[in-house]
Amino acid sequence: MLLVRTELKFSSTHGLGVFAAEFIPKGTRVWEYREGFDHRVSKDFVEALPEPARSTLCHYSAFWGGGYVISADNARFLNHSQTPNLQTFAQPDVDVSLRDIEVGEELLEDYREFDESERELYT
């Protein structure tokens, strides 16, 4: 669940992206996993889904800790960067800003920090 105000815009990085709708100081908790709002599902659950549900879920979720984390808000549109401004899972189930983030700046994370399925793609 995002803890800061954001908006979706077209991204020069990839498709849609998540952009800050407020100034975010360095060290701010930007996202946290909140059961009931966000969801974790097992790899077996995802593999049992029919297409196109399986590929859609995989595209809009993160594979972490042996299962998939699905965000119910704009967080599902966070894009990858090798120079991110968010530290993913800085604390268990929490993302924090690595530096000040200005209004209108895209929020970016390094998928390799948490998504085991992305490590080979982005290395």
Describe the protein in words.
With 123 residues, the protein is mostly beta strands. It is 10% helix and 33% strand. It is built from two helices and ten strands, in the order E-E-E-E-H-H-E-E-E-E-E-E. Strands 3-9-8 form a three-stranded antiparallel sheet, with no helix packed on it. The model has no long low-confidence stretch (mean pLDDT 89).
Number of strands: 10
Query: Can you tell me the overall shape?
Result: globular
Q: Order of SSEs, N→C?
A: EEEEHHEEEEEE
**Main sheet properties:** 3 strands, antiparallel
How far is the first residue's CA from the last residue's CA? Answer: 27 Å
For the largest sheet, list the strands in their spatial order. Answer: 3-9-8
Evaluate the radius of gyration: 14 Å
- Work out the helicity level: under 10%
Mean pLDDT: 89
Count the helices. How many?
A: 2
What fraction of the residues are assigned to beta strands by DSSP?
A: 25-35%
Low-confidence stretches: none
Helix and strand composition category: mainly beta
Quickly list its features.
single chain, 33% strand, 10 strands, mainly beta, three-stranded antiparallel sheet, 123 residues, 2 helices
Secondary structure elements and pairings:
Blueprint: E1 6-10, E2 16-20, E3 29-32, E4 39-42, H1 43-47, H2 53-59, E5 61-64, E6 67-70, E7 79-80, E8 86-91, E9 94-97, E10 108-109
Parallel strand pairs: 7-10
Antiparallel strand pairs: 1-2, 3-9, 4-6, 5-6, 8-9
